[in-house]
Amino acid sequence: MNMKAKQKTRGLSFIILFCILSVVLFFTLTNTVAADQTIYKEVTVKHGDSLWSIATDYKDETPRLTKQAFIDWVKHENGLVRDQIVPDQKLIIPVKKENK
């Protein structure tokens, strides 16, 4: 086998290995995120609710978070770009679910 063919085979091997590792990493991260969300409480937004009012309602259950930190966490974990929420929207909040 000549040198050019060996380099081509080696390059293809690296590409295949990279693709396999990317797929494995993707599934690992998505499973981890889904698993983490199962330990947090989910709330349904009611008419008149805001992120600030939800943070206020749960301040006793999250004493280590400021209201702004609570809001930032909720926005990040729920993929919110703005502070706007709508009735019947489901949000994951940084409050642990109670074990039943």
From TrEMBL:
Transmembrane segments: none annotated. SMART domains: LysM. Residues 41-93 form the LysM domain. Pfam families: LysM (PF01476). It comes from the Bacteria. InterPro entries: LysM (IPR018392), LysM_dom_sf (IPR036779). Gene3D superfamilies: LysM domain (3.10.350.10). This is LysM domain-containing protein.
